[in-house]
Design brief:
3-stranded antiparallel sheet; mainly alpha; 189 residues; 6 helices; Membrane-bound Lytic Murein Transglycosylase D, Chain A
């Protein structure tokens, strides 16, 4: 989970940096984007607190299990062994339940963030598309996107609601893998 959590600041950083669109006017991010970023920060803080509580509960359960194991005499009767086995089984069920809840929480966090980031990218690209309109030909208009480090053509296409094939054709690319950071791509409307 710790590996997963380090992606949240990166995702938020990407949201804060914006979509990489070149605008023709110098305007700040749409007010809705700032509110959404604030909401995402609060959501991450809340989920981190929930994760900490889950970790604490797991530690307590594991401590109970260790204490239960260490408090048993070296020679125990069959009924004592059965009692301990029942306790251990119960603790293991609780641990599995906590792990299942953590897995479910991870999936929910990922799904929520994916939806919100996609929504932010779409609102940002639609809000900036009117400001950054550029004419490709006399009859075709669109926007210009500057490729950021680590972006793929499929991510860019998804953010603007177009297909990868359209971007390859419109920009005269040899393949979908033939992009580089700093490259300007034409995104048709």
């Amino acid at each position: 989970m710790k590996k997963f959590l380090h992606l949240f600041p990166l995702a938020l950083g990407l949201v804060l940096v914006g979509t990489g669109c070149v605008t023709t006017q110098d305007a700040g991010p749409p007010p809705a984007s700032q509110a959404d970023v604030g909401y995402l920060r609060e959501e991450i803080r809340r989920l981190n607190a929930r994760l900490d509580a889950t970790d604490s509960e797991l530690g307590r359960i594991q401590g109970d299990l260790m204490a239960s194991r260490s408090s048993q005499p070296s020679m125990a009767s069959a009924s004592q062994l059965q009692s301990v086995k029942t306790e251990v089984d119960d603790l293991q069920r609780q641990i599995r339940a906590v792990d299942a809840a953590r897995t479910k929480d991870k999936k929910q966090i990922y799904d929520d963030l994916t939806k919100k980031i996609s929504k932010l990218l779409k609102s940002s690209s639609s809000g900036s598309s009117s400001r950054s309109s550029a004419r490709r030909t006399g009859s075709q208009s669109g926007i210009e996107h500057v490729v950021k480090s680590g972006q793929t053509l499929s991510q860019i296409a998804s953010a603007y609601g177009v297909t990868t094939r359209v971007l390859v054709e419109e920009n005269g690319l040899k393949s979908a893998d033939a992009i580089y950071a700093g490259q300007k791509l034409f995104i048709p409307e």
